[in-house]
Write a structure and sequence with these properties.
Layout lengths: L1 E6 L4 E10 L4 E11 L1 H5 L6 H23 L8 E7 L3 H18 L3 E5 H7 L12 E6 L4 E8 L2 E7 L5 H11 L6 H9 L24 H13 L8 H29 L4 E5 L6 H10 L4 E3 L11 H11 L30
Helix pairs in contact: 2-3, 4-10, 5-6, 5-7, 5-8, 6-8, 8-9
Bound molecules: adenosine-5'-triphosphate (ATP), magnesium ion and fe (iii) ion.
Adenosine-5'-triphosphate binds next to helix 4, helix 5 and helix 6.
Length: 350
């Protein structure tokens, strides 16, 4: 089945075409595009929802045309439109879902609404690599930090989560304290390569609590005090910034890796997926590989860690590819806990 997928939940407009083979459960990406609004939002220091909606509106229609052209497919070749229906910014979601509904109506094809975090969670499947069930997923993005036990597609138990800031948010906010541009994660990672993490001992919040929850707001506060002690962000030397970036990255990754591996042990599920924007962090990937002996790692390709439409197409294929009917009624949902999802219902034939 050929799936046209649309993602517009936050500040990336993304479109992909995916050909899934229901017989094998495998597929391939025929074409994909991602238009980032980062530069537009950077001068505000974060995403401005109204601006995001307008940018999606302008970007989406030509991107759909371009992707169809690249794959050399017409609407008559498209079997379904997958679209992110939540969670995310309401106005941004509505641009994608309205486009999907209108195009589906005109061309007489179904719309497959997709949960954005299920897209992130299943992203390793794009490379043909979903682990056997049950497996554990560390979902670490701009808005979420969760540990999820996956027993089947759509059967997700939340076994740990952040009590305050998300890991990506901690990267972004700490970066801001260092005077680095938005989004801070990639900037911190870049500077950290030449930094000495041991110069600034930062706390590992919740590391010694025997649970699977996270807390990152204290870490951000510790960064604020450390920067203040050096005379504020403007007084920082390049080396101060590099060392501080290394310390921030090390502290965040240490906690994430420790808790993710603890989850695998506690749940007796030695298979771990890491997904979401922070999963693009190479220090995190390296630390998991070196400390995760006995745990099999499943990582999406770097470009499929941050927001993209290929992961939305794949989630739709994983959910509906075997013949489960598209939901008749649904709405865009800005807030939508992942564990509220249920497994797809397959058609009962007689
Ligand atoms: P959500 O998926 O929770 O709705 P989002 O879609 O905004 O949030 P993503 O696009 O998945 O989040 O990820 C963006 C986040 O990932 C940002 O916080 C960004 O700083 C962080 N990030 C991206 N690359 C890296 C990296 N190399 N190292 C650390 N953090 C990174
Ligand atoms: Mg984004
Ligand atoms: Fe995301």
């Amino acid at each position: 089945m050929n799936i046209l997928a649309i993602e517009s939940s936050c500040d990336e407009t993304a479109v992909a075409l995916y050909a899934g083979d229901a017989a094998t459960g495998c597929g391939r990406i025929l074409a994909e595009q991602i238009a980032s609004q980062i530069e537009t939002h950077a001068r505000f220091g974060g995403v401005v929802p109204e601006v995001a909606s307008r940018e999606h509106l302008a970007a989406l229609p030509p991107m759909v045309d371009a992707v169809m052209q690249e794959a050399d497919l017409g609407w008559n070749h498209i079997d379904a439109i997958a679209v992110t229906s939540g969670p995310g910014l309401m106005g941004a979601l509505l641009v994608g879902t309205s486009f999907a509904r209108a195009a589906a109506c005109v061309h007489g094809i179904p719309v497959l609404p997709v949960h954005h975090m299920e897209g992130h969670l299943l992203a390793p499947g794009l490379a043909g690599q979903l682990p056997a069930f049950p497996f554990i997923t560390l979902l670490v993005s701009g808005g979420h930090t969760m540990l999820v036990r996956v027993d089947a597609i759509g059967s997700y138990s939340l076994i740990g989560q952040t009590l305050d800031d998300a890991a990506g948010e901690c990267f972004d906010k700490s970066a801001r304290l260092l005077g680095l541009p938005y989004p801070g994660g990639p900037e911190v990672a870049r500077l950290a390569r030449d930094g000495d993490a041991s110069r600034f001992p930062l706390p590992r919040p919740m590391l010694n609590k025997d649970n699977l929850d996270f807390s990152f707001s204290g870490l951000k506060t510790a960064v604020m005090y450390a920067v203040r002690k050096l005379g504020g962000s403007e007084a920082l030397s390049d080396q101060d910034r590099r060392d501080m970036a290394a310390a921030i990255e090390e502290a965040i990754c240490d906690v994430l890796v420790s808790k993710a591996l603890r989850a695998c042990r506690q749940q007796r599920a030695p298979r771990l997926v890491i997904a979401g924007g922070v999963a693009a962090n190479s220090h995190l990937r390296g630390l998991l590989a070196s400390r995760g002996k006995g745990v099999e790692l499943f990582l999406p390709e770097l470009r499929h860690c941050t927001d993209n439409a290929a992961m939305i197409a794949y989630a739709a294929f994983a959910r509906y590819g075997a013949g489960a009917p598209a939901p008749a009624e649904w709405d865009a949902r800005p807030r939508w806990p992942l564990h509220e999802l249920t497994p797809p219902h397959t058609l009962i034939s007689n």
